[in-house]
Specification:
By secondary structure, the protein is mostly helical. The protein has 3 domains: 52 residues, no CATH class; 105 residues, DNA polymerase, domain 1; 182 residues, Intergrase catalytic core (hpI Integrase, Chain A). It is built from 14 helices and 6 strands. The strands form 2 sheets. It has a 3-stranded antiparallel β-sheet with strand order 1-2-3, covered by helices on one side. The protein has a 3-stranded antiparallel β-sheet with strand order 4-5-6. Strand 1 and strand 2 form a beta hairpin. Helix 8 packs antiparallel against helix 10 and helix 8 crosses helix 12. The model has no long low-confidence stretch (mean pLDDT 85).
C-alpha cells in the first residue's frame, strides 16, 4: 500500500508467513520508493526476507509452493497437473526446494522402484513432470539448478540391487518395455483395405465403421505428420493453412507450440475434407470441443477402440494407434535428409536425446548404400 503524507511517500508491505509484522517505509522521492519496494516485493515473492529487515537466513519455500507457482505461471502439458499432484502426495508435506539435491533425486527414484514398485515408464512420467517444473523454477531463481537433470541414462530401469530389494517385500522388478512396433510388410495395405470397406477373407462381412472417411484421414495424417492422436482430433479448420502447407499446434502434450509441415499427400486429402468447412469448425467429428481432461480422454478412448477393431480385422497383432507416430518418425529419418533438430521440431520431441533410438535407422541406410 502507498500513500502520500506531507512531503513524503509512505509504503506498507505485508507478507503473511514471511514477515512477523508489516514493513513501514518512507521516501521523499516517489520513483526511488517505487523501485525499492518493487525489489523488496520481488524477493518476498521468492520467499526471501532481506537482511536489513532482521532476517538471518532465507525462509525456504516448500516444493508445494514451487509447484503452485509453476502451474499458475506457466503453460504446462495437459497431464502435468495430475501427475504433479500424485508426486506431491507421495512426498513429505514440508519438503523444501533447497532439499532437492542430486542425492535426494537418486534416493527418490530408488524409492519409486523399491518402495512403490512403479513401472519404468511411470517413473519417467513422474520425473519428467517434476523436472519441467524445476526447470521453470531454476529459470526464475527459486532453485540453483534442476537436480533431476543430473540423473544418469537408464535411471528408471531396475538394477539387480533394486530387484533384490523389491523381492524382499514380495514384489517383482518391472521390465522397462519401450515400444518400437512398426508397420510390417503388408500391414499398411491391409489397414487401408479395412478402412475402405473391403471384407477380410476370414469375415462374413466388412467392418462397419462410423465416420469412415474421417478415420481414413486420421490414419493418413498420423503416418504423414507424426502428430499425436489428441493433437489431431482437436484440430480446428483455422489451424490448417493449405497454402503454406502448415498445421499450427497451439497447445501440445508437452505444453509447447509447434508448426507441422503438410506433405503433398496429406495436403490433397485435407483439401477434400476442408472444401466445405467453415472457419472455427473442427476438422474431425468426434470431439465435443470441451478442453477438459474427461472429454479429451473419452475421445481418445473412443478412437483407440475404433482403431483396435480396424487393426484386429487387418491382422495387425499388437499394433496400437500411437505406434503410427513411431512409424512416421522413423520414416522421417529413413526417407528425408532433414537434420535431427528439424525432425524434432516436426514431431515435438523436447530434446534430441528423445530421438536417439531412431539414430540406428540412418546407420542402416548408410550400410545399405555400401558395396
Amino acid at each position: 500500500m502507498k500513500r502520500r503524507r506531507g512531503d513524503a511517500w509512505h509504503y506498507t508491505v505485508k507478507r503473511a508467513g514471511l514477515l512477523p509484522r508489516p514493513l513501514y517505509l518512507s521516501f521523499t522521492d516517489e520513483a526511488e520508493g517505487d523501485e525499492y519496494v518493487r525489489r523488496v516485493e520481488a524477493l518476498l515473492d521468492r520467499g526471501v526476507v532481506p537482511d536489513e529487515f532482521g532476517a538471518k537466513r532465507e525462509l525456504r519455500p516448500t516444493l508445494r509452493d514451487g509447484v503452485r507457482r509453476y502451474l499458475a505461471g506457466q503453460h504446462v502439458a495437459a497431464d502435468d497437473p495430475k501427475v504433479l499432484g500424485v508426486v506431491l502426495q507421495r512426498l513429505p508435506m514440508d519438503m523444501r526446494l533447497a532439499e532437492l539435491s542430486f542425492t535426494w533425486a537418486t534416493r527418490w527414484v530408488g524409492e519409486l522402484k523399491r518402495k512403490q514398485n512403479l513401472a519404468p515408464s511411470t517413473i519417467r512420467k513422474h520425473v519428467g513432470a517434476l523436472s519441467r517444473c524445476l526447470d521453470w523454477l531454476a529459470g526464475h531463481g527459486d532453485v540453483p539448478f534442476n537436480a533431476l537433470r543430473s540423473l544418469p541414462k537408464g535411471y528408471a530401469s531396475y538394477t539387480p540391487d533394486d530387484a533384490a530389494a523389491v523381492a524382499q517385500v514380495e514384489g517383482v522388478a518391472k521390465d522397462d518395455v519401450e515400444r518400437d512396433r512398426r508397420l510390417e510388410l503388408g500391414e499398411e495395405a491391409r489397414i487401408r483395405a479395412v478402412l475402405d470397406g473391403m471384407r477380410p477373407d476370414d469375415r462374413q462381412r466388412a467392418l462397419e465403421l462410423r465416420e469412415a472417411d474421417a478415420l481414413r484421414l486420421l490414419f493418413e495424417m498420423a503416418l504423414e505428420s507424426a502428430m499425436r492422436m489428441r493433437e489431431m482430433f482437436t484440430l480446428s479448420v483455422d489451424q490448417v493453412d493449405l497454402k503454406r502447407r502448415t498445421i499450427f499446434l497451439d497447445k501440445t502434450k508437452n505444453g509447447s507450440k509447434r508448426q507441422v509441415p503438410i506433405t503433398t499427400v496429406l495436403r490433397t486429402q485435407l483439401a477434400v475434407r476442408l472444401k466445405s468447412a467453415e472457419p472455427g469448425e473442427l476438422v474431425f467429428p468426434w470431439w465435443d470441443g470441451d478442453a477438459r481432461l474427461p472429454s479429451l480422454r473419452r475421445t481418445t478412448s473412443l478412437l483407440s477402440r475404433q482403431f483396435a477393431r480396424v487393426f484386429s480385422a487387418a491382422k495387425c497383432e499388437g499394433l496400437h494407434f500411437h505406434d503410427l507416430r513411431h512409424e512416421a518418425t522413423s520414416r522421417l529419418f529413413e526417407r528425408t535428409k532433414l537434420s535431427d533438430l528439424e525432425i524434432a521440431k516436426i514431431t515435438g520431441h523436447k530434446s534430441l536425446a528423445q530421438l536417439a533410438r531412431y539414430a540406428n535407422l540412418r546407420g542402416s541406410n548408410l550400410a545399405a548404400r555400401l558395396w
